[in-house]
Each structure stands twice: as C-alpha cells, then as structure tokens.
Design a protein that fits this description.
Layout lengths: L2 H15 L3 E3 L5 E2 L5 E2 L1 E3 L8 H18 L5 E5 L2 H13 L3 E4 L12 E2 L7 E9 L3 H12 L3 E10 L3 H9 L4 E6 H10 L5 H12 L7
Parallel strand pairs: 5-6, 5-8, 8-9, 9-10
Antiparallel strand pairs: 1-4, 2-3, 6-7
Helix pairs in contact: 1-6, 2-3
C-alpha cells in the first residue's frame, strides 16, 4: 500500500467516524439537484476536531508540494474551502484569498476576496468535488484575473465522470486526498456498511441521476 493510499484510507476512517460522511443506501438523501443519494458529505465538520483538522492540513500540504510545488497564493472555494485554505496558507506562509462561485450582488460585487496579482501562481483548495461545476467557476475567475492556476486539491471527490471530463476540458489538474472507492473500501472494513450496501453504492456512482427512481 502506498503512503498516499494509506493516508486516504485514514481520512476516510476519520470522515466516517465523525459523520462528516454518512452512508445510507436504505434511506437515501435528496440533494439540492434533486438526485437521490446514498451518501451525504459535509467536510466542514472536520474543523471541529483538532487532530483530524491537523491531519487533513498536513495531507493538503504534502500533496500540494509534491504535485504542484509551493504557489504564490492559496485560494479557498467559498464556503467549504475557505477555512481549509486558511490552514494550508498559514502552514506554507503564503497569502490566502477566497473565491465565490458568483459575484456578490451588492457592495463592490467582488467574486475574489483578498489580494492576488496578475501572473501569480495559485493553488485552489476545495472541501468536496461533486460535478465540478462550482469548483471550475473559481478556476475561470482566477484565470480571468490573469493568475496561473496550477491546480486544485479537495478533501474528497465522488469521482463522477462528468467532473473528470469537466476538469480535462478546462485543462485544470486536480487531486483529492480521499475518493469514493477508498471510502467504500474503508467503510466495509470498519463495518459502517455491509457487502450488500457496496452494490447499491457502486450502482449510484455509475448513474447518480437515475439511481433510486
């Protein structure tokens, strides 16, 4: 097992333990999109647990420096990525900004909050990648500002093909500290789910829009 996989499984275990991720194939959740889903993810809960928060910060920094190198600026995606980005920027000793998925409708109508200059290299921190739509709006806004977006890192990704295709189209590299396959693997090992649940969870990931109808 590689060090990266080992870290991903440890994060999966943390997320399951603190119920940042809930798996309920028999009692699915309804997402804002209307999709029925056997999984619900709220990684903001990790901030309430210092040991877990610290471990995730360390893995962000390790992955970031190995994959992309140290950037000029760290950008957090509003709102879930803001606190994570602040922790990472503090560790690296670099400036931090955050970016909304759309401009404010009042005041200065900013989309980017904080100071970033044309030509600066930026790494974007996200808590969760679902379809990739809102995350890539942030990448586009930074590029329009003249920034060099080196890539994006999230705590967790569902690994939807629609997201993978969207990132490829935008020519934006992304990494995730933990993913859906490893989460299911760890959930089964730790008895959060049964073998029967695994089939339903895999079927959902293959066709989330139609699952549960």
């Amino acid at each position: 097992m590689t060090q990266k996989t080992d870290a991903a499984l440890k994060i999966a275990e943390f997320l399951l333990q603190i119920k940042a991720i809930k798996l309920q194939p028999a009692k699915p959740f309804t997402w804002a999109s209307g999709w029925k889903s056997p999984i619900y993810c709220d990684n903001r809960i990790t901030l309430s647990y210092p040991k877990i928060r610290t471990y995730i910060r360390q893995q962000f920094v390790n992955t970031l420096t190995e994959k992309f190198g140290k950037p000029d600026v760290i950008a957090g995606v509003a709102t879930g990525g803001i606190a994570q980005a602040a922790l990472v920027a503090q560790e690296l000793g670099v400036p931090m900004i955050y970016v909304r998925s759309e401009a404010k409708s009042h005041g200065l109508t900013n989309m980017i909050e904080g100071v970033v200059e044309k030509g600066q290299s930026v790494i974007v921190i996200e808590d969760l990648i679902s379809t990739g739509g809102s995350s890539l709006k942030v990448v586009k806004a930074l590029r329009e500002k003249g920034c060099e977006v080196k890539g994006m890192i999230s705590i967790f990704t569902y690994g939807f093909k629609i997201a993978t295709d969207a990132f490829k189209k935008e020519k934006c590299e992304f990494e995730s500290l933990c993913n859906y396959e490893l989460l299911i693997q760890q959930a089964l090992k730790s008895n959060f789910i049964t073998e029967k649940d695994v089939k339903a969870l895999k079927a959902w990931r293959d066709n989330p829009a139609e699952w549960g109808k």
